[in-house]
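Input sequence (210 aa), recorded before submission:
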Amino acid sequence: MSVVAREGIPHISIPSFLAVMLLLMGYPVGGAAAGIVAVSVALFFRDPERAHSAGPGEILSPADGRIVAVDRVREDRHLGGGALRISVFMNIFNVHVNRVPMDASVVNVKHIPGGFAMAHLDDAGLINERTEILLVDSSDRKSLMVQVAGLVARRIICRLREGDVVARGSRFGLICFGSRVDLYLPEEAQPLAQIGDRVRAGQSVLAQMK
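Predicted structure, token format:
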């Protein structure tokens, strides 16, 4: 059964209250319109329960959406060399809640101010406002998640803190009204997803690490 992310409750409460007040005051059209807004916002912030059946070393998608990049890149700032990058673009109709792709410890969380270019652009993860989350697994391998703001998505929520120990598939935040999450994995990771694939956070397998 779907629930609503707690960060969405204030956004849902206002049009819901307005809908009730307008109906009580005898304005059914206005009340119905406010009710539609409340339902639409609730859909934006839906947070369904999910379970996964991933095997050892399989990396789950951190976001719902469409794969827009699968490539080998340099990630010198955090990973110190080559990396496998997999990017997931979320539209406004996707579930916005993000989930942890692997069992890991949180090494660092940093919010970086930036622009609000179209999130599907290749370099959006380097120039847009974003939150970078550095993870390390039980084999001391580092991975990087980047929550990227976009043209419409102007609010990034990350619940993680340095020192947290997180489980694969658990919720860690959301990007309001869409945008993108970039995942940088160690160079030895092998991709199991390809550009154009539709994926679900905490369920779809993106890559394999031994």
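Checked by second reader. Residues 23 and 31 are 5 Å apart (CA to CA).
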